[in-house]
Amino acid sequence: MGALDYGKYTCGGMSALTMLLALGGCGIFAEPLERSSEHFRFSATSATSSESEMQEGIDRAEALYAAIARILPPDVRLDPVIDVRLNGNLRRQVPHVDENGTIQLWRYSAEEGGYWALLAHELVHAITFDAGVEVGALEWESLGFYNEAWAEYVGQLIDPGRTGFPFYGFDEDVVVGHWVSQGGLTLAMLRESHGALNECWHQAYPMRASWYRYVDETYGRQSALDIFYGGREMTPAVVEEILDDSLAVVDADWRTWVLARYDAHPGADVQTAAYRARIGQYRPCG
Ligand SMILES: [Zn+2]
Prior knowledge:
Elements: H1 16-22, E1 32-36, E2 40-45, H2 51-71, E3 82-89, E4 96-97, E5 103-107, H3 119-126, H4 129-134, H5 143-158, H6 172-181, H7 187-192, H8 194-197, H9 201-219, H10 221-229, H11 236-243, H12 247-264, H13 268-278
Parallel strand pairs: 2-3, 3-5
Antiparallel strand pairs: 1-2, 4-5
Helix pairs in contact: 2-3, 3-5, 5-9, 6-9, 6-12, 9-10, 9-12
The structure holds zinc ion (ZN).
């Protein structure tokens, strides 16, 4: 996901008794845990994970690393070793890649995939972190939209069985199609106001991923890769040059494609209702 900051969970402001009871959960008496593999260094404490859970994560991460490497162009340099920090049960912070390129994870419910709910997505961000820093990509104003679009789309490609955010096991055609058919947010808005509208996450993450799927399937893998790994900031002019179409046309055609897929999906109405019930607390933007 993006670098949403919900503030830090602290152990402050407790009574002495509460503090004693909470010490274990805050990790004060916890032992550090570390586990490494060819491409990963997992760290946690005995309060936030266990040896067996970390091994499960390492095995998954190595499989995902290999799957991403098969998709990326051979000339893109992958980070040789990626740090993954396991921070305990999900509270106020959400998984993200920090300023050092470390994947910070929190544990979702088992139903949503636990610690690994967003691992594929975060790993797409982290696997080329060093190369991105070198070309100055973190400073690019237009990076946000494409960074999140590509991470979520590739996450779908390499880990299609995910049951957590943002699709919760529902079909991409249903989730995206129903958001588009109800109007509101557009891709142009998501590109222009990435920081603010990223918080409309139930709409933003699926819509952006779907746009990248459309580009990949319509314009070809090379065009999809050129946008993200071409070494140039993905300004509208650069993306239009790569696709040889205006973004207005690409977005309009994507919309038609999305709505057709929704219409063709058996039982889309029933699944839409179930999906909206699943994210019931969410107030749509736009
Ligand atoms: Zn992300």
